[in-house]
Inverse folding.
């Protein structure tokens, strides 16, 4: 198998996918990269989104990479990274049951031996000596008010008042966690104040290159939310149209540290 390849050898063994999750955890089906895979999730788990799918497709994992998955939720991106050849994967999330949920999913799909999950804010719960070749930052970048109205996040909180504050903090903290010449996959969206995030990334990394983009229709219930209309009027978010539907754009950026060093 070539490094980073999506080959039949990476498919989930059927027997592993038939195990029932424990009480309080339901099974959903991941249909993205390397799927289908059954994933256990609880009411407090951040579930895979369209951006999660775009990130999964954009991930380039080299055999032997150490990977940190920030905002790991169910652990799906870390599981995929392990199946693509990562030697070690660390996942973090603020969800109080992330360790049980994500660890259970990793065991279910045969990668428990190389994955470890932690509960905490961004990188704070990781051992101090952990350095990654790849950081995947699937954290909320939706303005808090819109997060509360949308119901997309179990905590009903987003990435700050303008949706850029949490991603910017992640970018600034990532430098202490990257190995020399490491890289980060950074999602952004027009549903947040996007320019300050990209400004922070360009200040912190040697190069920032867009590697994926997808236009996503807004659910009609969210399109009618007062918070969405207000944020659009204030110029915090930017929406397009497709027929009668409102559209927002999701993007993924590859941020590369300078050779021989982390970002800061």
């Amino acid at each position: 198998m070539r490094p980073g390849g999506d080959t039949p050898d990476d498919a989930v063994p059927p027997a592993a996918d038939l195990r029932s999750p424990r009480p309080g955890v339901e099974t959903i089906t991941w249909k993205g990269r390397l799927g289908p895979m059954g994933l256990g999730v609880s009411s407090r788990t951040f579930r895979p989104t369209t951006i999660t799918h775009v990130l999964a497709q954009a991930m380039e994992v080299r055999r032997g990479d150490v990977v940190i998955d920030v905002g790991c939720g169910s652990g799906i991106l870390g599981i995929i990274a392990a199946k693509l050849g990562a030697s070690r994967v660390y996942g973090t999330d603020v969800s109080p049951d992330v360790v049980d949920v994500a660890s259970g999913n990793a065991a279910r799909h045969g990668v428990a031996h190389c994955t470890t999950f932690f509960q905490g804010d961004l990188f704070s719960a990781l051992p101090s000596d952990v350095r990654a070749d790849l950081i995947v930052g699937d954290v909320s970048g939706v303005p808090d008010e819109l997060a509360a109205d949308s119901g997309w996040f179990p905590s009903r909180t987003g990435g700050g008042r303008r949706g850029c504050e949490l991603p910017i903090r992640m970018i600034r903290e990532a430098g202490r966690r990257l190995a020399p010449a490491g890289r980060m996959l950074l999602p952004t969206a027009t549903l947040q104040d996007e320019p300050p995030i990209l400004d922070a990334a360009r200040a912190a990394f040697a190069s920032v290159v867009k590697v994926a983009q997808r236009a996503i229709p807004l659910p009609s219930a969210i399109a009618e939310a007062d918070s969405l209309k207000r944020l659009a009027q204030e110029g915090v978010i930017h929406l397009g149209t497709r027929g009668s539907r409102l559209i927002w754009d999701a993007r993924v950026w590859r941020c590369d540290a300078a050779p021989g060093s982390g970002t800061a």
Summary: The chain has one domain: 12-216+250-256. Residues 12-216+250-256 form a domain with the Rossmann fold fold (CATH 3.40.50.150). The CA atoms of residues 74 and 101 lie 6 Å apart. The radius of gyration is 18 Å.
